[in-house]
Hints:
The protein is of the alpha+beta class. It is about 25% helix and about 40% strand. The chain has one domain: Nucleoside Triphosphate Pyrophosphohydrolase, CATH 3.90.79. The chain contains 2 helices and 7 strands, in the order E-E-E-E-H-E-E-E-H.
Amino acid sequence: MGKQFGVAVKGIIRRGDSKILIVKRSAVDDHAPELWETVGGGMDEAISPQENLQREILEEVGLEVKVGEPFNIFSFTKDNGEFKIGITFICDYDGGEVLLSHEHTEFQWINPDDFKNYASVASLHQEIGRYAESQINLSSDK
């Protein structure tokens, strides 16, 4: 038997104005402290990835969302050596006001194009860059 590994679910939460939500990890986080990220976390219940993500988003930022299509699948090793597979879903904001948990210190609604100006991990810069491009392509098709 190989080593067990975890699954993380993340959401690119978009509003009607096309802005997406990013949150800043707390300084005491055990992984990537003080970097900006999308909302999500490890799967900890035997329910679908989509339901886990909906629950994580509600716990971390107090928002109701509709979880849509998977956008990206990635893998990473946490600062503590744990290997994780990640799935990012596109989520549509459905209600509520942002209320941060202890895991994050700040939040911003930004144009996806502007994420490159925020300190984060290279893989997330790539993912959101790809998301921004996909949105530009969509709007030019109309």
